[in-house]
Amino acid sequence: EDQVTQSPEALRLQEGESSSLNCSYTVSGLRGLFWYRQDPGKGPEFLFTLYSAGEEKEKERLKATLTKKESFLHITAPKPEDSATYLCAVQARDTDKLIFGTGTRLQVFP
Amino acid sequence: GAVVSQHPSRVICKSGTSVKIECRSLDFQATTMFWYRQFPKQSLMLMATSNEGSKATYEQGVEKDKFLINHASLTLSTLTVTSAHPEDSSFYICSARALGSGGQYYEQYFGPGTRLTVT
Questions:
Q1: Distance of residue B52 Cα from the nearest chain A Cα, in angstroms
Q2: Which residues in chain A touch residue B2, judged by CB atoms under 8 angstroms apart?
Q3: Any CB–CB contact under 8 A between B109 and chain A?
């Protein structure tokens, strides 16, 4: 069964304190792994898609990496505005569906 | 690009009434849209996949007669919650499938969500 597990469930960081969020997955043939940011009461905002092991993508203070079993979202020198829930989702090769993890709730304090 | 809107953003209705939620792709055509619901502090659960011009495909456990989905054009899908009950209160989010920036693969872009409260 396709499955996505995210850790930690919640993370509190001081402004400028870099860290990583983990997304472990099992899927029958990966088409893509997606990272989204979700603010309270809003829909998910697209961040990255990764398609193959070894791939990396960056956007401002965020960098996503992918292996055959997991993905990391690295946050470098975070700011309070980076506070949000970060969702990871996978898509299997033979479907349009996304399977979501339960997210990591990130809080960055000044 | 790839902007998705939803209307209304919030709705309160009485038990037994029906509510329609609209999902629009603003700057692209979407042959496939998706409807999710999300409970507080939980992740997104796919309810159904909506294909333009054909019947929606519902996930196991989702009542198709209760959650009516219509995808009549390439930019609009609607979700109607019929005979709503308090347990239908939730955050409903749609997404639309669009080609990513590389032009090779499809990605899902989400609307801002609709908060439904049934009293």
A1: 14
A2: 46
A3: yes
Per the CB < 8 A criterion, the answer to whether B45 and B36 are in contact is yes
pLDDT tens for each residue of B61-112: 999 999 999 998 889 999 999 999 999 999 999 999 877 666 667 788 999 9
CA B92 from centre of chain: 6
Distance from C-alpha of B76 to C-alpha of B31, rounded to nearest angstrom: 10
- What is the C-alpha to C-alpha distance for residues A25 and B96, in angstroms, rounded to an integer? 23
What's chain B's Rg over C-alpha atoms? 14
User: What is the average pLDDT value for chain A, to the nearest integer?
Assistant: 95
Task: Say whether A41 and B115 touch across the interface (CB within 8 A).
Answer: yes
Higher pLDDT, B58 or B100: B58
Q: Is the peptide bond before B112 cis (omega within 30 degrees of 0)?
A: no
Provide the β-strand partners of residue A87. A36
The nearest CA of chain A is from the CA of B31 a distance in Å of 12
Is residue A18 scored above 70 in pLDDT? yes
